Amino acid sequence: MNGMGGLMHGLAQGTAFVLAFAIIAIGTQYIASPRTATRSFGLPLPEDGTNITSWLRLKGVRDIVAGLVVLAFAAWGAPKDIGLVLLVEAIIPVGDMLVILAGKGSSKSAFGIHGVTALLMVLASVPLLMGGR
Predict the structure, then answer these.
(1) What's the predicted TM-score (pTM) here?
(2) What is the mean pLDDT of each run of 10 residues along the chain (133 residues)?
């Protein structure tokens, strides 16, 4: 692939890597300091209890795995595979956004963090899906 198509493809793959590393970093923060990480999510902190930290760390584990899946497909899959994974995983920030809005959380976080993340994932997936195997 060359020219503009190659540039779009490279930009999409670069975006996929940035998104993967970003979600791994967020997941790591949820494991290391779950209450601090939760403050930026867009919902109020959960009620205090003995198991809250463990429940919050579960999100961290899932975020790390979601990022590693993108990296695994980037390392061993075709560009179309990376695009498909990004498109499917875009459901996660869409779901987060909808949960925050339904819970009357921060609409700024819902749209500005989760909505923008979903949009970037979808936009990065398109050139990869169209680029062939």
Answers:
(1) 0.86
(2) 72 92 95 90 81 89 96 91 95 96 95 96 94 61
Rounded to an integer, what distance in angstroms lies between the CA atom of residue 3 and that of residue 12? Answer: 14
Give one DSSP letter per residue of 13-81, joined into a string.
Answer: HHHHHHHHHHHHHHHHHHHH-HHHHHTTTSSPPPPP-TTHHHHHHHHHHHHHHHHHHHHHHHHHS-HHH
State how far the Cα of 38 lies from the Cα of 22, in Å rounded to an integer. 15
Contact in structure between 41 and 100 (CB atoms under 8 Å): yes
Domain boundaries, the chain: 3-130
Identify residue 116 by its one-letter amino acid code.
V
DSSP classification of residue 114: I
